[in-house]
Structure formats: C-alpha cells, structure tokens
Amino acid sequence: MIMVTICLLCFFLLFLSQLATITAFVVDVPTPSQGFGGTASSSSSTSGKKKKNTKKKYNSKSQSYYPDVSGTTKLLLEWLDEEEVEGLESVEIGFRKKEEAGDGLLRGVFAKRDIQAGEYIMAVPFVSTLLVDESFEVSSSDNEKSSGDSGRDNSNRRTGEPIVGLRFWQKFLNKSDDKKEEKYEAYLDCIPLTSDDPNFDSTPDFWSEKEIQQLEVPIVVENMLSRKHAIAGLVETPQQSNVNGNDDNVDDDDNGDVPTSISTLQQACWIMQSRGFSTYKKAIDLDGNIGLLSRVVLIPFIDMLNHASRTQSNAEIQVIETKEYDESFYALVANQHIPKRTEIKVNYGTGEETSFELFCRYGFFAPTDDDEFFLENQEKERAALEMLLLPEGNTTTSPWSTSLKDDQDMIGTKIGRTEPMHSILSLRIYAKKLLLSSSK
C-alpha cells in the first residue's frame, strides 16, 4: 500500500512539473523590443489558445462585422503565411454595413484581439509586394527630403496617374503575356477586377459625364472629366512613341500593350488610385547624381484597410527599410488602443487634405456629422469651397441647380440612396451647409 502511495505521489509531482513547463511556454511572449504582440495584451491572447474549444461562435448581434470566410480569402491568407507576413493572427478580413448609403456591405480589416497603442500589428516584406512603378528624379536643390528619409509620398500622387494604372495592367493583369507573374495570383483574386465584383465601389472614374457634371463644383468636375478622358485616350489613341519605348513617361521594359477595353483600363487605374502606395527615399544613380527614388507598390492585405480622418484613424503604415531589400518591410502600427472587433483604419493622405481634395483623389466623400477633424476645420473647408465655386469672389451668383432642401429630400428616396446619386447629393449637401454657415 505504501509503495502504491509513493508511486502515485511521484506521478502527481511529475504531472505538476510538466504543467508548469507548458504554462511557462504559453505566457512567455516577446518583449516590446522583440516585435509583434509585445504588449501585455499579448499574454492573454496567447494563453487564450488553450481555450479554443470553449470559444463562442461568431454572433452577428454582438459583433460589428461579419468575418470573410470565402475560399479566395482563405487562399490569400495561406499565401501570406507562406510569404512570412507577420501578425496575421491579430487581424481578420470582414464586412460591415456601409454607413454612407445605409445598405450594402463594405470589406475591411478588423482586430481579433485588443491591440495597444504603439504596437506593431503586422508587417509585409518588400518582396511580397507588387512593385508597379519605380523612377528616379535628380534633385533640383538641397531642400529635398533629408538623407535616409523613407515614407509615403503625399506631395506627388503618382498612384493616380493613368500611366501607372496601365503599367499595373501590363505587369500583372495582361493575360496575353506568357511571362505574366503568377506569384500574386491569390492576391489578385481578392481584389475587384470587374464591376461585377461585390467589393467594387463605383467612383467617378466609372460615372457618365452627365453624372459627373451633377457634382456642380467646377474644379472637381474638371478634375474628374480630365482623368476620365486621359484613361480613354490611352486605349483609343495609343501613341506610337509608347509602343516604341521613346516616350519619357514609359519605361524601356514596358511591353507597349494596352487593353482593348476602356473599362479594363479604368479598373486597373482605379485599383492603383485607391490601393497604390507611393514611397520615396534619397538615392544616388549610376552617374553619381543625387535625387529621389520613388516607388509605387501594392501591399497585399494592408491595402484592404479603409480610410478614416486624422482624428478617427487608429493605425498608420510605416516603411521599415534596411540596406537589404529582402529584409525591409511595410509595417502597420497602432496609434491608439484598438479594442477587439474594432475596424482598423488609416488616413489615406497627409491628414490635412480637405474633403474635396480627398474626393478628387479617391472618389469617396469623407465628412460625417461626428467627425472632429472636419468640425474643427470648417473654416478651412469653407475657404477651399469658396475658391472652387467662386474664384473671383463673386458671392451673388449661385452655382447650384437645386436648393439644400431639394437635395435633403432626394437623398432620402430610393434613387438618393443609390450610387452614384448618393455621393453626388452628399457632396452638394455638405457644400451648401458650409456656405450657409459662413453667412450666420
């Protein structure tokens, strides 16, 4: 009996020692200096893996989004894992109801756990991005960006240039090219390449000229029509110099092909306009000239993040570049505490653009009634609008074909809730409210 008791006691002590080892492994998470998930919240999320079987199923009533469980998204995540993208366990692709139009779903990225301010959420290696365009410009003065600077190029929106959209199509979408890169197939299958895709949002690039004219802000209308005509021009009247590689805007390695359909090129240009990321850094070319090397890239997964103003965004994208290209990466960093199930959003521009500038660049209308940034910057917004509408200071002529009440009544109708009319009316209502507030 004594021997049995001793054996049982030894077995129990051995079990406790093994349990202690497992627990130590689970809670032993990296320190903040070691990279991802380095805050105190990481220990709870890591130890939570032991409770996998007791985790409640998703409840649409308790969560603000619906997880994307499609086959294409699953393949994308598998590919990103193979590409050694870090932080995938902390985020999730999902859908939330559109706030702007009141119906439909908008795809975005959501936090699967609490994320602390300053924490690295995820990182995508340079080698896993799509390098669409690269150019070098000799510096004209010593007042250029300081040596070693690297970041988003907001002063030169090259992503919106139609020629960049054409290069994207030529390098990654041209199915007639036998040498087409197939590495990014899982990523390309997840971005809306046709207007039939449920994740496609119709921006002014796809509106008719009559619909664009209904915006009734002259400079905005001119900007949209000019871009629309430039895209059409690349398809309808391709320059001979483009084919021969003699045009300064075309790289020597461009294959000269252009899509046969305007809508195809519109789609490629829209993807670069809405998802493209421009970076710059000081560099020296082979002739010893000092200048800026700029790149236009697509960053898989991170480019699914939606926009929020400077005051409402909760994350930012940073460029972490080393001497070795294959060791450099784009990082998503939290700039405030992000609670679990919250959508992760970044500011697309510098944070200083007016709502009208954002509309011209990205095709969506940003302000909301509770957005602190636009409430605090109404004077700036109003001044920009008055310059757009009445550049010569003539305040006696109304540029509008309808009244504020007409637009407010219409936006509540079925037609007014449908795009593009919803965006058109939203911009006009906001502009009219701004002008009325200046007269009080």
TrEMBL record:
Record-linked InterPro entries: SET_dom (IPR001214), SET_dom_sf (IPR046341), SETD3_SETD6_MTase (IPR050600)
Biased composition (Basic and acidic residues): 142-159
GO MF assignments: protein-lysine N-methyltransferase activity
Record has Repeat as a keyword: no
Signal peptide (residue range): 1-24
Keywords: Signal
A family per Pfam: SET
Coiled-coil region: none
SUPFAM superfamilies: SET domain
PROSITE patterns with a match to the protein in the record: SET (PS50280)
Extent of Basic residues compositional bias: 48-59
Protein name: SET domain-containing protein
